[in-house]
Fold this protein.
Amino acid sequence: MSSTLINLPVAYRQVIFILCIILCILPENIFAIEPPIALLMGLLIALIVGHPFQKYNKKATTLLLQVSVVCLGFKINFVEAMKAGEQGFFFTVGTIALTLIAGYFIGKKLKIDKNISTLISNGTAICGGSAIAAVAPIIKANDEQISVSLGTIFILNSVALFIFPTLGHMIGFTDQQFGTWCAIAIHDTSSVVGAASKWSPEALQVATTIKLERALWIIPISLATAYFQKSTGKIKIPYFIFYFILAIIASTYLPVYFPILNNTIGGHTIFQYAFMFGRKGLVVTLFLIGSGLSLKTIRMVGWRPILQGVLLWILIGSLSLFIIKGLI
């Protein structure tokens, strides 16, 4: 039985796939595709005709996401980024700890495989797929456990990318409030940046800064997991976050000492072009993420991991919403 709705020759599928990527990178004054639409387009490609370059998808998605996030840093002011990071520090620590503790007990109550529960909890608490990739070798998770965890996080991220901007407008968030809420309540960096970029440039700056600060917690969480698991597995450090910080510093201070960098070419400075590349790169990244889904992955996930993910999502989303709005 075919895993897609339509069987097409590989060459046709490749042409369709490449045309979709071209649509994603067209200038906004010609044809603008928002991040949620790119994700949906990828999903449709995966389910209707299938991904013709599936074996390259994971590496391409990871690399492009990291490069895009670094490029987004070229439009962020260092002083404002430090202020946003400082304001979100204790919030970050508290919500990570609460999510990990709640995830442990929810996983036990639902009788979910221990490794799957641990991966979903870490993915929800820190930064989605990156956290799962870092923790998986430490707890010696097998391919099926990793796939189920990633599938759970991916499905919820896809939903978040569509509903968070709408909910934000209904709740009446300011730019800073929405950016903070995205960074805390949405799992994966790609969906956080996608939702925030759809909201406003200010929300994007806040969301990206707080989310990547949050992602740095991969390191101490991985070390703690390795200690308690008595594991000697290699810990993956998200080095691209440090490049993101360098991009912020460069775009903030280099133009002061080298005014030539303020010169425009075609109406934009070099840093503005880098930021524009980052935004387009993010759109393509979300298309690739969507196109990497398969019916097999959806079937493999099952209802228990999804329920754990949803319960943790409701917990962290509601708590962060109330705190941000000053209701508790």
Remarks:
- The first helix runs from residue 10 to 25.
